[in-house]
Structures are given as structure tokens and as C-alpha cells.
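// run 5 | inverse folding | seed 20
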């Protein structure tokens, strides 16, 4: 759905382009961190006892899970789990 008039899109783009590359990068990083915080809060709301491992798995699935086939997803989830339980010698 696109309900923003094209002249507003142009104004917004011009406003963004007036910022330095560094400012735009910082803004993008802040938006990513905000999105991550929202997703993590959602995961913890569904399971208040979620372990850090469960949160990492949930973040992966929410952000990237759709980009992988089922076998690849399972391998990645297994890697997240094994990284949480390193083998000690």
C-alpha cells in the first residue's frame, strides 16, 4: 500500500539526502536497533522465561527465517544452539 503523495516522497528524500552519509548510516543503525528491540520484546512477551539462546533463535527466524529453506533454517538454528553450549576441553 502506498498512500504517500509523490511530492511528499520527494521532499522526504531531499531531506534525507541533505544529511551526510555518516548521519544517514547512524539513522539506519538506530532504526535497526529499534526494530531488534521491538522483536526481542515481542519474543519475551510470548515467553517471559526465554533464554538468551531462545531469543537469538527467535530473532533469526523473525528477521531472516523466510530467506532460507527448511533444511538450512534447521542447520542455522542448530548452530545457534551449539554456540550457546561450547565444548570445553
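// decoded
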Amino acid at each position: 500500500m502506498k498512500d504517500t503523495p509523490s511530492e511528499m516522497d520527494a521532499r522526504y528524500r531531499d531531506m534525507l539526502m541533505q544529511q551526510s552519509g555518516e548521519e544517514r548510516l547512524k539513522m539506519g543503525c538506530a532504526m535497526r536497533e529499534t526494530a531488534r528491540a521491538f522483536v526481542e520484546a515481542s519474543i519475551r512477551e510470548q515467553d517471559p522465561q526465554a533464554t538468551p539462546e531462545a531469543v537469538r533463535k527467535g530473532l533469526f527466524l523473525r528477521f531472516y527465517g523466510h530467506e532460507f529453506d527448511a533444511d538450512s533454517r534447521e542447520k542455522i538454528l542448530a548452530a545457534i544452539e551449539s554456540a550457546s553450549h561450547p565444548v570445553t576441553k
